[in-house]
Structure formats: C-alpha cells, structure tokens
C-alpha cells in the first residue's frame, strides 16, 4: 500500500483489458498489472498488495487456481474475479476453495468494480486488524497467566519454611516442624502468641505449603470492628441491604473459596458475632447481608489471637464450641525474648532488607550493638526489632551500625542482667524488687555502672563529652570505667 491508497493487482492475459482496468482504477488505487498468473505470483512475492482482481479464463492457470494459491500464501489479501460465465462450476467452486470475496460479471460497470474493490480492501483491513487484536489478546492472556504463575511460585518460595529467618537452634524450629506436618491436612488451625511474633507469616506458610496453595489467601483483621461491618466484609451484602450498599458484594468467604481465610485477632469478636461465625463454619454456607440465598463455600480457616482463648472460654467470654471449631490444631509462637538466639540473625536480615529498600549501604552491626540488641527484652517482639533496625540505618553515617544509634530504652539493659525488664525503668516504677541479699552499696554500684555504660555509648565512648555530661573529670571518669571494667567493643 502506497500512501493512503490501497494497492490492487490486476491480472489478465489480454493487454487491452489490463489497460482498461488500470484507467478505471487509477484515481482510487495504486494499480499493478500482470499478464499471467505466474507473473502475478512473482509480483506478490515483492509487493504489498491489498487486493487481487483477475480474469477467470487465462492460459496455464485460471483465475480460481491463482486465487486459491493467493489464499494459501497471503490470506489477508482480498480476492475478486472477473468472468463472463456466471454459471461456471469453476466459479462456484472458487467461492469456497479460493475464498473469493466477490465475482463480477462481464461486462462490468466501473462504479460497481470500484465499490466492490473498496469494500473488499476495507474488509481485508478489518480482518487483519481483528487477527492482530486476537493475537495481542492471546499474547496478553498468556503473559498474564505466566505472570500469575510466576507470582504464585514466588509466593510459595517466599513463604517456604526454609525462608523463615531463624538460627539453627531456634525455638521456632518446633513451630516450623508443626507447620510441615499439619499444612497438607485440611483442618482449622489456631495460631497463638504475643503481637508481633509473626502469626500471619506462619498462616501464609500453612497456606503455601498446603494443597490449596494455588488458590486465594485472604486476610481479615477482626479486631475492634463493628459486627455489621465485619459481617459485610466476611459474608458480603446485597444491593440496598443498608445505606451505601450500591451493589452486590461478595464477602471474603466467597472470595477465598477453594483457598484459605486468615482471621486475625479472632479473640476480639463479640459474642453475637461468634454465633454467626460458628454457623458458617458448621454449615459451610454463607448468606450475604440482606439476602435470603445461601452460598456454599469451601474455605480453610486459620485464626490467630494474642489472647489466651482457653481462659476466655473459662470466663464465658468466648464460645467453647466456636473455640473447638477454630482450634482443631493449635500452633503457639514464642515471644522474641524467648528466642534470643534468633536476635542477631533477625537483625542482620532486617539490616540487609532495609539497606536494599532504602538504597543505603550498610555492612553490619558493631559487637556492642549486637550485644545491646540481644540484651533487650523486646516487648513488641519481631516487629519492634525490625523498626529499631530501620531507625538505626536511617540515622547511620557509617556502614557499621553502632550502639549509639539505638533508642535510649535499649541501652538501659545491662548485658549481664538476667532480668527481662530494664533496670532503670524497674527502679523508677518500683515494679521489680532487688534480689535477696542485695545491699544498698550493690544497688548503687549497679545503677552507676548502667548509667556510665549508657552515657558512654551515646557519646561513642568520647570521654570528654561523657565526663562533661556526668559532671566528672576525665581522670574520675577513667577511674570509674576501669573499676567497672567498661570499655568499647568493636
């Protein structure tokens, strides 16, 4: 095709007929001419053509035979035939075999021929566009499916038990072993443990190591959510069921059909909602808010709580039958203070991840920093440790992160103190007594040692600045550091 005009190839063994065709079509088309079917095929090898119009009766190869080959080799080219024999069997057969768009009887009218060619070229153009779009859609669908499969494979790898960060002697090994044993079996699991211990991480590990791994994993936090809103989220609602319900909404049970639904903070749901949830778990059916129709669902439920649900059951605040529905198997996660052996490993892992996310180079923690991290009791568990590492990295001006970057509360714990609570906070709040036989002199020295250590770390062991803050001379400060054996660590 040249410019905006389609190119038409005219084929006829009579030169006069070709000249007539060329004069007729020249105003609307770019015209190429061939005096035989063989010349036409050679020309089609070189030129881009929108349509072929040819005479039926030609020596060697007739029009139908030529257009049959054109259809096989260039299916997007429109094909028209000129013939004075409308009842010819070759013409009738050619309509099917050669896919002829139209045959035009001789003598043909110029306007009729031009209109037929324009329509055929436009049809061929639309067919090409349609084929291109269909191919694009197929490719897009295939690419989307490939991306979905890659994402699923990545998620399965990401939440593989081997990817759970821990040391070789970690107390978490027991929980990981339990997950490996129970994941393949379609039972409800209740995960318990303090906030920030990774309950959702283990719920995902259960899902992606189960037979439902290819299906959805849906999360809902049930804490402090009103019953009506929670019912709408979990069970769905019908259009007009309440103000703002502008359309039908499938709840999370329906969205998780075939997969896993993780209900976090399950211990916070009200007594009335416990009844609604129990019915769904028993009957495996959900009824959308404002709807009478019940829908079957096939969902594995994993619940989590930081409460002691057995104590809640005993106190009458949680239904016993719902508890046993949720806790066919129970998985208990230890707090970070119970797995201190994991703290250095976790800290290094969070440092590496945060360094990549922030595009800020960091190599390691100083020995003093790791010692202080390991000594702290981490009431916020893994989440608090992650936040502390991120904070240290943001404040750091060196690839090695020192203890002076840490929050003050972390520095108030003596490395050799076996008690889980910070010494200064315990003293000030009087929540913890001194050990039996501890004299006033012992208590004073312990407090002085801790104050010295915290101050030195904050000032990066600069004795002049530390002595000024403490109101001591450099000589007096040095004497106290020597007395308590305090010195910087790498």
From TrEMBL:
Annotated signal sequence is: none
Kindly indicate whether the keyword Nucleotide-binding belongs to this entry: yes
Q: Which residues form a coiled coil?
A: 123-161
Q: Which UniProt keywords apply?
A: ATP-binding, Coiled coil, DNA-binding, Nucleotide-binding, Phosphoprotein, Transcription, Transcription regulation
List every position bearing 4-aspartylphosphate: 55
InterPro entries per record:
AAA+_ATPase, AAA_lid_NorR, CheY-like_superfamily, Homeodomain-like_sf, HTH_Fis, P-loop_NTPase, Sig_transdc_resp-reg_receiver, Sigma_54_int
**What region holds the Response regulatory domain?**
7-121
Record-annotated Sigma-54 factor interaction domain positions: 165-394
PANTHER family referenced in this protein's UniProt entry, alphabetically: PTS-DEPENDENT DIHYDROXYACETONE KINASE OPERON REGULATORY PROTEIN-RELATED, TRANSCRIPTIONAL REGULATORY PROTEIN
Q: What is this protein called?
A: Sigma-54 dependent transcriptional regulator
Origin species, per record, is Sessilibacter corallicola
């Amino acid at each position: 095709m040249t410019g905006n005009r389609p190119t038409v190839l005219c084929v006829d063994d009579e030169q006069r007929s070709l000249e007539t065709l060329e004069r007729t079509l020249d105003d609307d088309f770019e015209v190429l001419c061939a005096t035989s079917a063989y010349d036409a095929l050679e020309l089609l090898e070189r030129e881009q053509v929108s349509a072929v119009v040819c005479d039926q009766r030609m020596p060697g190869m007739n029009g139908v035979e030529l257009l049959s080959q054109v259809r096989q080799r260039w299916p997007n080219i429109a094909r028209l035939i000129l013939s004075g024999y409308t009842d010819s069997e070759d013409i009738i057969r050619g309509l099917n075999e050669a896919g002829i768009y139209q045959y035009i009887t001789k003598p043909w009218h110029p306007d009729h021929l031009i209109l037929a060619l324009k329509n055929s070229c436009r049809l061929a153009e639309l067919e090409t566009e349609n084929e291109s779009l269909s191919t694009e859609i197929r490719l897009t669908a295939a690419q989307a499916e490939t991306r979905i499969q890659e994402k699923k494979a990545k998620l399965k790898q990401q939440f593989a038990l081997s990817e759970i960060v821990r040391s070789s002697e970690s107390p978490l090994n027991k929980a990981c072993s339990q997950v490996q044993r129970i994941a393949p079996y379609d039972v409800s699991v209740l995960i318990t443990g303090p906030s920030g211990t990774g309950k959702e991480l283990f719920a995902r590990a259960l899902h992606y190591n189960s037979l439902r791994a290819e299906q959805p994993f849906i999360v809902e936090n049930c804490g402090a959510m009103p019953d009506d809103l929670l019912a709408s989220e979990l069970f769905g609602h019908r259009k007009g069921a309440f103000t703002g319900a502008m359309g039908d909404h499938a709840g999370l049970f329906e969205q998780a059909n075939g997969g896993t639904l993780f209900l976090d903070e399950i211990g916070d749901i009200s007594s009335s909602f416990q009844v609604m949830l129990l019915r769904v778990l028993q009957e495996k059916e959900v009824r959308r808010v404002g709807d009478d129709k019940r829908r079957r669902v096939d969902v594995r439920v994993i619940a989590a709580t930081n409460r002691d649900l057995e104590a809640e059951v005993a106190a009458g605040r949680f239904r016993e039958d719902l508890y046993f529905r949720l806790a066919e198997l129970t998985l208990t996660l230890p707090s970070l203070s119970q797995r201190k052996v994991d703290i250095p490993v976790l800290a290094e892992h969070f440092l590496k991840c945060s360094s990549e996310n922030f595009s800020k180079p960091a190599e390691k923690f100083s020995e003093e920093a790791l010692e202080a991290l390991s000594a702290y009791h981490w009431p916020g568990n893994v989440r608090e440790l992650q936040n502390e590492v991120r904070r240290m990295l943001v404040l750091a001006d060196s690839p090695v992160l020192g203890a002076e970057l840490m929050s003050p509360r972390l520095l108030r714990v003596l490395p050799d103190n076996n008690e889980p609570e910070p010494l200064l906070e315990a003293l000030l709040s009087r929540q913890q007594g001194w050990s039996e036989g501890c004299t006033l002199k012992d208590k004073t020295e312990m407090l002085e040692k801790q104050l010295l250590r915290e101050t030195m770390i904050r000032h990066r062991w600069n004795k002049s600045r530390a002595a000024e803050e403490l109101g001591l001379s450099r000589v007096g400060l040095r004497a106290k550091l020597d007395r308590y054996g305090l010195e910087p660590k790498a």
